[in-house]
């Protein structure tokens, strides 16, 4: 009896006249919008201004895209700069090839620039953005499905992925079914997002520790998923280069979490996210009693009481606020 399998997409590009609409690009764009939306909700629930996130994203996103492409090209230069190859194709982002480590690293540089311009602490922004960032990765991985790339080794599991002959490895042209590693990583990323939201809601993780937890959890999953892949990769001491990068980031995140283990949940002596008296993420003079802020926007939710759909708490935002002056009480969910 024929086992179930995941079919290959019938096409990954559609045309509106002369303009190609690529599924890979749509997945990346959808992920970016989802990340900005979720980060904006979380930032606003912490008492911040949602406009901060939009402005920071204008710096972080372009830097991230450039960083992702640079990482891919630098780690696989032979795909573009050896005899018979076309160096110009290094610019063809739509063909696939955005390295997540490079995207996060250079995207962080862009975020740092945006944070400085908005008067926001980078660590506070990183903690707010971590769940949205991994959500974007989960959505972006579906672009690999439409490109029929970065799949795993041959398998006969019920959820195996059918790969068209034109996209199969040269060493197994007659093998049709492979591990859907894009799906494994997408589901893993969604699990990491859920973990981050729960940790933040339960423990009020601060001072960059939630972002470090994201790095720790993501690289742990990337390690076993990378071991399944059969696409081209440079190796060092028997391991794929991405494995070494993931291992380094994993260790770095562990060291950071250990070094900051005694920090207060808010990462500041007075219990506020950045040491400001009212605990606002950017240190501006924003009321913490639910009144309107300087921009006239309602500050409801700044104390963690904002309701999401159905009347429950919104995404993984804070459940409570710190005491902010005499007579102001905040409830903290620990």
Please outline what is shown here.
By secondary structure, this protein is mainly alpha-helical. 46% of the residues lie in helices and 5% in strands.
> pLDDT below 50 for ≥5 consecutive residues: which ranges?
267-334
SSE class: mainly alpha
Distance between the termini: 53 Å
Rough outline: globular
Main sheet makeup: 2 strands, antiparallel
Fraction of residues in β-strands: under 5%
Fraction of residues in H or I helices: 40-55%
Q: Order of strands side by side in the largest beta sheet?
A: 1-2
Question: Whole-number average pLDDT?
Answer: 81
Tally the helices: what do you get?
8
- Rg calculated over all Cα atoms: 22 Å
Query: Strand-and-helix sequence, N→C?
Result: EEHHHHHEEHHEEH
Sequence-ordered SSE layout with sheet pairings:
Blueprint: E1 13-16, E2 19-22, H1 23-45, H2 50-75, H3 100-118, H4 122-140, H5 142-147, E3 161-162, E4 177-178, H6 181-203, H7 209-226, E5 235-236, E6 239-240, H8 241-259
Helix pairs in contact: 1-2, 1-4, 2-3, 3-4, 4-6, 4-7, 6-7, 7-8
Can you describe what's shown?
The chain is mainly α. The chain has eight helices and six strands. A two-stranded antiparallel ribbon has the order 1-2. A two-stranded antiparallel sheet has the order 3-4. It has a two-stranded antiparallel sheet with strand order 5-6. α4 runs parallel beside α7 and α7 packs antiparallel against α8. It is globular. The C terminus is likely disordered.
């Amino acid at each position: 009896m024929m086992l179930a399998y995941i079919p290959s997409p019938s096409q990954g590009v559609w045309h509106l006249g002369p303009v190609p609409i690529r599924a890979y690009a749509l997945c990346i764009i959808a992920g970016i919008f989802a990340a900005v939306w979720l980060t904006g909700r979380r930032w606003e629930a912490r008492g911040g201004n949602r406009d901060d996130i939009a402005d920071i994203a204008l710096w972080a996103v372009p830097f991230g895209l450039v960083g992702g492409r640079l990482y891919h090209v630098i780690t696989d230069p032979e795909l573009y700069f050896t005899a018979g190859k076309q160096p110009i194709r290094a610019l063809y982002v739509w063909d696939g090839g955005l390295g997540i480590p490079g995207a996060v690293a250079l995207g962080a540089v862009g975020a740092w620039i945006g944070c400085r311009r908005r008067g926001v602490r980078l660590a506070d922004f990183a903690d707010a953005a971590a769940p949205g960032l991994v959500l974007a990765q989960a959505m972006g991985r579906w672009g690999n499905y439409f490109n029929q790339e970065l799949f795993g080794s041959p398998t006969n599991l019920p959820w195996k992925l059918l790969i068209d002959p034109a996209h199969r490895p040269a060493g197994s042209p007659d093998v049709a079914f492979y591990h859907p590693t894009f799906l494994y990583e997408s589901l893993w990323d969604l699990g990491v997002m859920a973990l981050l939201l729960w940790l933040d809601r339960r423990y009020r993780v601060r001072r960059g520790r939630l972002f470090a937890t994201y790095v720790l959890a993501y690289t742990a999953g990337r390690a076993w998923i990378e071991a399944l892949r059969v696409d081209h990769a440079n190796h060092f001491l028997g391991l794929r280069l991405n494995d070494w990068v993931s291992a380094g980031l994993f260790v770095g995140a562990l060291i950071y979490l250990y070094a900051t283990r005694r920090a207060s949940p808010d990462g500041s002596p007075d219990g506020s996210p950045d040491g400001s008296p009212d605990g606002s993420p950017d240190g501006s003079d924003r009321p913490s009693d639910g009144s309107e802020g300087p921009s006239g926007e309602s500050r409801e939710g700044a104390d963690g009481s904002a309701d999401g759909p159905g009347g429950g708490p919104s995404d993984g935002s804070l459940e409570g606020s710190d005491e902010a002056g005499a007579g102001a009480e905040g409830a903290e969910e620990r």
